Amino acid sequence: MPSLQTLRDLDDHPHPLKLKKSKAPFICDGCKVEGFGFCYQCTEGCDFFFHKECGIRRPPACQKFFEGCEFKFHKKNPLGGDRICDVCALDIQGFLYQSTCRKNPNVLHPCCANLPMIISPPYTDMKIYLCNKIKTECLKCGSKKRSADKVQGFSYASSDGEFCYHVACLREVGVENWIKSYCQPDVIADNENKPLSLIDLALKKVAPVGMGAKARKQ
Ligand SMILES: [Zn+2]
Ligand SMILES: [Zn+2]
Ligand SMILES: [Zn+2]
Ligand SMILES: [Zn+2]
């Protein structure tokens, strides 16, 4: 689905929002989750950001992991109490999708509900799949468990199990790399004309880590 360049007449903010690359990581004013890269920003200069997914609110791609369920967008947690996102295992504090088909409905951050199913590191034919469980230890936090809670979230993993990251950990890697790239002027110059995505940023760090893990095992 093509992205809308400008969102107008939202009841969330008095000014139109335009889709453009953020200059720094931001906290989304919809779901309250950190983001970076392309997002909706106020055209009048307010400090107001929406993830693309929090602005467009299309049916979640992750729906296929929850058989027979449909998800509805909500601006506020309709059931009250603490809710944990089934994909990243972090708290729901703003916008969410809630499933309509269970007694204890699943909930997802909008930015987690529309993650790509397959990612590929640049310059390789490696494929990394979004999985609804954690198969091996995460390369960032070193653990299979992401949270003390029952919900552990989804992961990105290669089919051979060499590459495995919690979704939340991969997002943190992306944010860290974003900050680093802004501290190194030559990296900015290199990347100025390229759209930076979570995956581009994450894998600059990820690729060597993955190879290191492989080398140690041999
Ligand atoms: Zn958001
Ligand atoms: Zn504004
Ligand atoms: Zn989430
Ligand atoms: Zn992790």
From TrEMBL:
The keyword Repeat applies. Keywords: Repeat. Residues 13-54 form the DC1 domain. This is Uncharacterized protein LOC111297003. It comes from Durio zibethinus (Durian).
